[in-house]
Amino acid sequence: MANVWLQHRSSIAGVWELTSFDIWDRNGSGRKLLSQPNGVEPLGRSVITPGGFSSAHNVNPQTLRQYSQVSLSEATDAQLAEILRAVSHYCGQVQLFEESDGTLRLEITVEAASDPQRLGSIQKRNLVYSNADGQTTMLLKPVGDFYLKACLFDPTLPEYC
User: Which residue intervals define the domain Lipocalin-like in the entry (predicted)?
Assistant: First the structure.
């Protein structure tokens, strides 16, 4: 399967703001929300360059606010564990493939990550992007049971997301 990044990069490259991070149960009939690891108002940015490099940073702001006065060098082990669980970062080279049914699949080869299990892995996401009413959105459906939704970050708009 050929890498189609060059054909689609103008629509995908940019700074994206995370608007939801949901884990769904796909077993049985209907969809059941299991968790929102970054809270109901997650904070995250994903930068995807035209050259095909991605850097994603997601946090649970509610958890991190509890520790805003705590220096990491002075935090207890319990505090560090809770802070670390509230933070997820990874980056790497992007490839984009088009399935026979037209589905776009984003693959990121992870070069650095806050989760050691991601190092060297390939993070695969089915990608759907749209531009409606001047709002550009991208839905990422990872292989697994959670969804990521982001919108193109544009601080010049009063309500860009």
Answer: 14-137
Whole-angstrom CA distances from 102 to 28, 112, 120, 141 are 27, 30, 27, 15
How far apart, in whole angstroms, are the C-alpha atoms of residue 54 and residue 109?
A: 9
- The one-letter amino acid code at 83 reads I
Nearest to 129 by CA among 101, 151, 98: 151
Could you tell me the CATH number of the domain that includes residue 128?
Answer: 2.40.128
Residue with tokens 């940015």: 45
pTM over 0.70: yes
With contact defined as beta carbons under 8 Å apart, do 24 and 34 qualify?
A: yes
Q: Which two tokens stand for residue 123?
A: 């993070």
- What distances in angstroms separate CA 106 from CA 5, 61, 75, 148, one per listed residue? 9, 27, 37, 13
Percent over 90 (pLDDT), the chain: 53
Residue 71 maps to a domain: no
Evaluate whether residue 37 is within a structural domain: yes
Number of domains in the chain: 1
